[in-house]
TrEMBL record:
Residues 123-231 form the G domain. Keywords: Cytoplasm, GTP-binding, Hydrolase, Nucleotide-binding, Ribosome biogenesis, RNA-binding. SUPFAM superfamilies: P-loop containing nucleoside triphosphate hydrolases. This is Ribosome biogenesis GTPase A. It comes from the Bacteria. Coiled coil: none annotated. CDD domains: YlqF (cd01856). GTP binds at residues 58-61, 130-135, 174. GO terms for molecular function: GTP binding; GTPase activity; RNA binding.
Length: 285
């Protein structure tokens, strides 16, 4: 699912995306709505320059609605064109098309003033692994395009595909590397499935998830695992309570912490406990 990124991959991805950028009017950057800060590629701002940018907060069905609204406002203030989507829904094309038209309005008005014949708006999709790039391309192209999620950058044989009546899209997305300089960012990326579990310590991810829920979504956590805890309960006691409640025991009636850890990670990742946004719009850099 994910890639191990090396400096060579990163340089290649950057070069390929710079090349593709020359061909498009607008960039559609896909972020995971649960982690709009952590799922941003750190280099993209530099290479996009002042090209219009649509920012999709994808997987909105798994994120917290109020936080998504706050992120939309924040991104608008930053001068990009944000939308929140569930990439699997049928209305994705219309929503992206409307936003792309808005983002490129000035460019096309200028072309019209110069007497240049109108043409389709050219766009490309970029983002780190697992944010939903292929899902969105397939959805708006109304057909299955090649899965390239494991290739850094973009593959060579790019083609334009028609997306609706106003837009043409490069059929392969630009695959960017995730941030990995900061431990808590790594934990968020892992918790949402953007990087491999073996890159980050599983115990740390589960602890991060439990602390986050204890602080921000205590009731959801209590209800989902049917446990009696409060805001001051020690993390190890929360592990115990979940192990007890779920019957995750080893011989000798010891709690099976490994199973608790895995369960917590998967239940959080699949938004079973609730719809959480781990990067709060206020406070994320
Ligand atoms: P890519 O690596 O960026 O191309 O990501 P994919 O398109 O392969 O999507 C990664 C996973 O996220 C897949 O299991 C998709 O089915 C799932 N996915 C994509 N978009 C959404 C969405 O909006 N909501 C939910 N719940 N899942 C999504």
């Amino acid at each position: 699912m994910s890639i191990n990124w090396f400096p060579g991959h990163m340089a290649k991805a950057r070069r390929q995306i710079e090349e593709s950028l020359k061909k498009v009017d607008v960039v559609i950057e896909i972020l995971d709505a649960r982690i709009p800060y952590a799922s941003k590629n750190p280099m993209l701002d530099h290479v996009i320059g002042d090209k219009p940018r649509v920012v999709v907060l994808n997987k909105k069905d798994m994120a917290n609605n109020k936080e998504t609204d706050r992120w939309i406002n924040r991104l608008k203030a930053e001068g990009v064109y944000p939308i929140a989507l569930n990439g699997k829904e049928p209305n994705v094309l219309k929503k992206i098309e409307n936003t792309v038209v808005e983002a490129t309005k000035e460019i096309f008005e200028r072309m019209e003033r110069k007497g240049i014949n109108p043409r389709a708006i050219r766009a490309m999709i970029v983002g780190i692994p697992n944010v939903g790039k292929s899902t969105i391309i397939n959805n708006i192209a109304k057909r299955k395009v090649a899965k390239t999620g494991n290739t850094p950058g973009v593959t060579k044989a790019q083609q334009w595909i028609k997306a609706g009546t106003k837009m043409e899209l490069l059929d392969t997305p630009g695959v960017l590397w995730p941030k990995f300089e900061d431990e808590s960012i790594g934990q968020k990326l892992s918790l949402t499935g953007a990087i491999k579990d073996n890159v980050v310590n599983l115990d740390d991810i589960a602890i991060f998830a439990l602390k986050f829920m204890q602080e921000h979504h205590l009731d959801a956590l209590k209800q989902f695992y049917n446990i009696n805890i409060d805001e001051n309960t020690e993390i190890v006691e929360i592990f115990d309570a979940i192990g007890q409640s779920r019957g995750f025991k080893m011989s000798g009636n010891e709690i099976d912490y490994e199973r608790v850890t895995e369960r917590v990670i998967y239940d959080t990742r699949d938004a079973k406990i609730g719809r959480f946004t781990f990067d709060l719009a206020e406070g994320a850099e």
